[in-house]
Amino acid sequence: MTHFIHLEIHTAFSFLWGTFTPEELVKAAASLGQTAVAITDFSMHGVVRFYKSALEEGIQPIVGAKISLWDGSRIVMLATTFQGYGNLCKLVSLGTSRPITPQDISHFSKDLVCIAGGRESRIRVALAKGRLEEAECHLRQLRDVLAHPDWLFLSFQRHGKGAGLAQQSKELSLRLGIPPVATNEVTFLRPEDYIIHRILVDIQRKHHHRRVDPLPNESFFLASGQEMAERIDYHPAIENTLHIASLCKSFSLPIGRQHPPCFQAPDEAADKLIKLCWRELARVHKPAGYPYIRRLEQELATIKAKDLSDFFLLVKRVVDFAKQGEIRHSVRGSAAGSLVVYLLLGGVDPVRNDLLFERFINDGRGDLPDVDIDFDSERRDEVIEYVMESFPRQAAMVATIQTFKCRSAVRLAARALGYSLSEIDCLARCLPWSLRGSHLKEALATLPELRDAPLQNETELVDLADRLIGLPCQSSVHLGGVIITPRDVTEWTPVQRSPKGLLVGQLDKDDVDALGLLKLDILGLRMHTAIGKALDVLKSQDIFLPLERLPVDDEATYSLLQTTHSVGVFQLESPGQRNLLGRLQPRVFSDLVAETSLFRPGPVEGNIVEAYLKRRNGREAITYPHESLASILQETYGVILFQEQVLRIAHVFAGLSYAEADAFRRAMTKDRKSGKMEMLKRRFFEGARSLGHDDSLIEEVFSQVSAFASYGFCKAHAASFSNIIYQSAYLKAHYPQAFYIGLLNAGQVGSYPPFVILNEARRCNIPIYHPHVNASSLEYRAEGDGIRVPLTVVNGVGPATAQRIVAHRERYGVFCSREDFLERIPVPERVEKALVLAGAFEGLDAEWGLVQEVCNA
Amino acid sequence: MNVYCHEHPLSVLRQRLTQDRFVTAGSLRSIPSGRRVKVAGIMVIIHTPPTKSGKRVQFITLEDETGLIDAVAFPNTQEKFARIILTSEVLAVQGRLHRQGKMGVSVSIVIERVLAPWSGSLVRLLDKARPPL
After folding, report:
1. Residues whose CB falls within 8 Å of the CB of residue A584, separated by 6 or more in sequence, listed in order
2. Which strands make up the sheet holding A503-504, listed edge to edge?
3. Are residues A345 and A438 in the same domain?
């Protein structure tokens, strides 16, 4: 077997070009017996997952990228160290906005191997024309600026029947003493996948209107060493692939370790945090009860021991910014179970609601804790900008990778194959947006609505679309994930500016986890927007509602929920939730927490809901496997509903530490088959035995816990969400007009489109007034007891036109007649018609004209 | 227009629907559970959550002038009606009423069949309901 290593490879992360994922590449290279494999995309989006899967497969990952140079040619650069990786990130970053200059190369080529002279490079073009000197000149120019001139290699490629440029390349290589290396610009794994590459490029051409040509033939596949040696009949070129691999041998990505940024000395940060928390506790609880004091001491000790004080201060800084700007926000996830988080960031009281800190942070968790915060959707960008500005060189947005989904794959493949847009609409009708794990062909065979679909007769299209589904097709910006790195962010990932002007990295959230970087999730929650706008309406009516400080026992609020008329209420408005509301009949805040946790696929399918409701409504006896569990399971009538309960059972019944208990919970939810699970099960049994429980009882408790563990929901998260549920339900119960206006002005908040919300308001006997040129504003607004619909809902009236109408009215007075309106605001005839149909001129000519007459008289 | 500013389109159709023995969302809570009913409404959402068995259940929410109607289509119904369910702006169905919870406050309809003459595009149905000139 000939030893050979592919050093120039485009995966699907060279979007709409490469045809396979890094994982598929690694498997294919390993099955060819190759000991190392490279990734050299136009971006670095695929690098971390490539690296991880190569380690798993036991072959050496070589990380690189394709860089576009000043002269239009592209070179391959491969990292030999982590510093080299950082340089590569910097070059790729620069390359997103302009071609790379010789100066860039001289600054950032340390620890990088360079392969030049590939397909379509200046060098190759010059060789093809027989201009050896010109080729020589290009190569010298490059060699002169490289940090390691001896790490410059000349690419030898052969695609097609002829001898290619073997002779000329050899001469050039010998003359300059630049070593040769054989590459194949791998773009598909097998020759028969060439068609996928063609389709992808056609999508670029026909859908994105880019001028780009596909590769000329099917030779650009992952060829075996044997075949490469036959194609490139020049031994040193084959040999040198191994040499380069050995140069890259010492490269490693620091995955599996944590890399938090550090802003101040750990002790200093801890002191600051401790002072802040105690001061805040004294302010919130006068005097603070013993449970609070003990709890705070414990939490602070854990946080200090784990060196997380700096992190908490950072999050506090972000939230303080939101508080100052009156941007509504709330903490989601397990973080809501911490007293420190409650004191610093606000939310639900974890002591009063009996939430567990150890679900959030415990000694067993090496990773950085997740503090996810929901902000008012419309104002979240302000928070993101603040973070970006506060850490100018260290922060970047997380990327997300979009993949071809069922419908988009069919539409785009059809476009590439030259179908017309109307044919495509017809072919894609009734197709689901995405398929859950099944193939398109399977869907066509099983979904009844597709039985007579025209797509059934398009075997070629279906076959191609099926092969596209799941491939990455573009990257975009994660909605709220921001990474903050130690040192410069470009040492970790290439960055570029988004259209909004924010720096975006090329790591997705899994990559960020793998690299152990700190990630803040600055999420948007439209319900915050809606509540904020509802409160604004109330303010304009001189009602100042202290929504955050309301007691959570308002009868009218629970009565409303019991009627199931919950459209618009946060989280409880879906058909399933409305149904559950009727059966659960919530009476107190903890019922809302239970309601949120019950309505999940797990409990619904596992019949937990039935059991819970029967016990709650007294139709089934409440029993506990053992009396020591009564105190833990009492709140949920003996049914295990919360992850926190699983932790407590493992802690109390089996004597596991919370760290072990949490590991036990995670193993049960995620990976039940692993050896770790066996080990933890043994620990559970040993611990329980040593506490004097007999084996049959342990078996029973264990089986119950393990049956329910995967359904369990994080109580802290449920409690935090229930707070917003209560606030929105309270508004709906007491101030429906403001509530509906808030919802309507916040975009689509929940499951229902605006028309349903408006109809709901009408059904609540709130008068709805149609759009009118003299009364409507840019948003829904209160008019007496009713709601005035804005002009923007009229077909053809965009925000700009509406703005013009309102501004003109405010400046020069009301419109007296339709003619008056048209004179002042010229609109196309179809818009005028739409305004007439909407009633926007109603009464104008008669009454407003009359008013005008009276005024003039 | 993306909202109905003047009245709900179903109120325009109501007289004809009542003649055809359709009931409104608001009246469902006064009909005993298990009774067979006919309802029609604007299609609001179709939700198909993943199920362990892999069988697809469609949870459908319709809206008429009196409120929301929650309906379920199980695989046997989908066999015949999936296409019309997925492509209709207005959907008319016949099915069994299912009431749960305190005083039967949670109401849903298990769809047995879709009534094609009253389903489809809203404009077409409104034209049909208009009295002949």
Report:
1. A591, A594, A595, A598, A613, A616, B101
2. A329-332, A372-376, A518-525, A472-484, A395-403, A503-504, A496-497
3. no
* Nearest CA-CA distance, residue B81 and chain A, Å: 8
A288 CA to centre of own chain:
40
Report the number of distinct structural domains present in chain A. 5
What are the pLDDT digits (tens) for A40-89? 999 999 999 999 999 999 999 999 999 999 988 899 999 999 999 999 99
What are the strands of the beta sheet with A781-783, ordered from one edge?
A768-769, A786-788, A781-783
Model pTM?
0.91
pLDDT band, residue A680 (cuts 50/70/90): confident
Nearest CA-CA distance, residue B121 and chain A, Å: 15
Q: Which of A578, A787, A792 to mutate to test the interface with B (most CBs of B within 10 A)?
A: A578
Looking at this predicted complex, what is its ipTM?
A: 0.96
Cα–Cα–Cα angle for A537, A375, A497, nearest 5°? Answer: 120
Q: Could you tell me if A154 and A169 are in contact, meaning their C-beta atoms sit under 8 angstroms apart?
A: yes
Whether residue A89 sits in one domain with residue A174 = yes
State the smallest CA–CA distance between residue A732 and chain B in angstroms. 16
Q: What is the pLDDT of residue A605?
A: 67
A561 and A451 in a common domain: no
Same-domain check for residues A436 and A300: no
Residue of B nearest to A580 (CA): B106
Q: Of A469, A490, A516, which marks where a domain is finished? A: A469
Question: Which residue, A452, A469, A486, sits at the end of a domain?
Answer: A469
Could you report the per-residue pLDDT of A469-524, keeping only the tens digit for each? 999 999 999 988 999 999 899 999 999 999 888 999 999 999 999 999 999 999 99
pLDDT digits (tens, 9 = 90+) for A405-439: 999 999 999 999 999 999 999 999 888 888 776 78
Which domains are seen in chain B, by residue range? 9-127 (2.40.50.140)
Residues A65 and A189 in one domain: yes
Q: Which domain holds residue A847?
A: 767-857
Containing A411, the helix (H) or strand (E) segment is helix A406-416
